[in-house]
Amino acid sequence: MTPDNQSDIKDPSLAEAGRQRIAWASREMPVIRQIRERFATEKPLQGIRISACLHITTETANLALVLKDGGAKVILCASNPLSTQDDTAAALVEYGIPTNAIKGEDEKTYYKHIDTALDNKPNITVDDGADLVTTLHIKRQDLLKDVLGGTEETTTGVIRLRSLAKAGKLQYPIIAVNDAQTKYLFDNRYGTGQSTIDGITRATNILWAGKRVVVSGYGWCGRGIALRARGLGAHVIVTEVEPTRALEAILDGYQVMPLLKAAEIGDIFITISGNKNVIDKAHLEMMKDGAILANSGHFNVEINIPALESLSQGVRRFRSFIDEYSLKDGRHLYLLGEGRLINLAAAEGHPASVMDMSFANQALCLEYIVKNRQNLETKVYRVPEEIDKKVARLKLKSMETEIDSLTPEQKTYLASWHEGT
Ligand SMILES: NC(=O)c1ccc[n+]([C@@H]2O[C@H](COP(=O)([O-])OP(=O)(O)OC[C@H]3O[C@@H](n4cnc5c(N)ncnc54)[C@H](O)[C@@H]3O)[C@@H](O)[C@H]2O)c1
């Protein structure tokens, strides 16, 4: 039983280890630390109930502490069954932030935890993938009347919410934090890039140099993964469905081909598209014996796992986060982290330094929602430009980096159409 009776975590005795790791992450989160100091005095979220569905990591803990110090009543649940750090969850409960998350929880428990977070009767939702918001819209509509607004952290969640809005069913304003430049340019690219390689390395201890690595999806995350894999000496092949992105991958120096062709030669396959069955039965049928499959996209649907099962005569857990599928034709394929985002399943997710910017956007957007609650419409908003710029400025300052400013003459020049050749 946890002290608050509102939490469900693996083991409260892990709290000390969690506290240490949260403090370590905080060292790399100067922008969040600064916002926390201001929130602690100004209390911009006083009395606001926040239900947050996020990866329960040390970085999320630092965000939750900002919101609590800002006066909010925060409750947390996991946004993925495999991404929870149990020691972090235990520390959060000790910090007085009810938390519902256990690494490896089954789907029923995952949704039970979302329900518990919603029992907080949120005024604001914070989501990563939109499972909390869709549960609220479908199952817990009675709670909608108290909701002022929400934020969404990731590409897949934003896509789902835009679909909900397009269908005319979105019930309150949501800010797409993912779409801030200080989020996707750094978190998606450098964060996912580094941590995906980290997750696969921790799970397998493979040597990247000389491997053929197939990256499916050349969006912001895919660019980062391809870049880092190449940096380690891998030969990177990109697969895409968007012609412009495919072109960009070629000019960035990668080989581009259809996945059916890449399937024959790849050693490691990484899906990062936000799409479904990207690696499908036909691809699995072509793969070399010993190929490794990993996903870093939000949901575990990018690799067609039921198809992999149907081709197999047996599966065994080879070591943590590696399942060996023995195919009926004698080949073996290795699925990492049950097809769930490998950077959070087998490693610790994004480094704190990039989450500093993503979560600074979160904190400032939540403050913005509370301040502007009377004026917001029921739609998916972009992050206000002044918040995005402010986060960039604060981050640069924390790096002791100064930049130039436009002179009055340059401002006039950039605003005019008169001056030419
Ligand atoms: N692992 C993490 O920590 C983490 C972090 C951020 C985002 N994400 C998730 O990663 C996914 C990608 O995010 P993003 O910001 O790069 O999105 P994005 O929209 O920038 O890029 C996705 C790319 O995948 C391509 N694509 C779609 N279907 C494809 C297919 N069948 N084959 C090949 N390519 C295909 C699209 O054309 C697009 O270029 C999303 O699910 C997002 O939520 C994960």
Please write out the topology.
Elements: H1 15-27, H2 30-42, E1 49-54, H3 58-69, E2 73-78, H4 86-94, E3 99-100, H5 107-118, E4 124-127, H6 131-138, E5 149-152, H7 155-166, E6 174-176, H8 181-204, E7 212-216, H9 220-231, E8 235-239, H10 243-251, E9 255-256, H11 259-265, E10 268-271, H12 281-286, E11 292-295, H13 305-311, E12 312-319, E13 322-327, E14 332-336, H14 342-345, H15 352-371, E15 380-382, H16 385-398, H17 408-415
Parallel strand pairs: 1-2, 1-4, 2-3, 4-5, 5-6, 6-15, 7-8, 7-10, 8-9, 10-11, 11-14
Antiparallel strand pairs: 12-13, 13-14
Describe this entry's structure for a reader.
The protein is of the alpha/beta class and about 425 residues long. It has helices at about 15-25, 30-40, 60-70, 85-95, 105-120, 130-140, 155-165, 180-205, 220-230, 245-250, 260-265, 280-285, 305-310, 340-345, 350-370, 385-400, 410-415; strands spanning about 50-55, 75-80, 100, 125, 150, 175, 210-215, 235-240, 255, 270, 290-295, 310-320, 320-325, 330-335, 380. The strands form 2 sheets. Strands 9-8-7-10-11-14-13-12 form an 8-stranded mixed beta sheet, sandwiched between helices. It has a 7-stranded parallel beta sheet with strand order 3-2-1-4-5-6-15, with helices on both faces. Strand 2 (about 75-80), helix 4 (about 85-95) and strand 3 (about 100) form a beta-alpha-beta unit. Helix 1 packs across helix 4 (about 85-95) and helix 15 (about 350-370) runs antiparallel to helix 16. The chain is globular, with a radius of gyration of 22 Å. Bound molecules: nicotinamide-adenine-dinucleotide. Nicotinamide-adenine-dinucleotide binds next to helix 7, helix 8, helix 9 and helix 14.
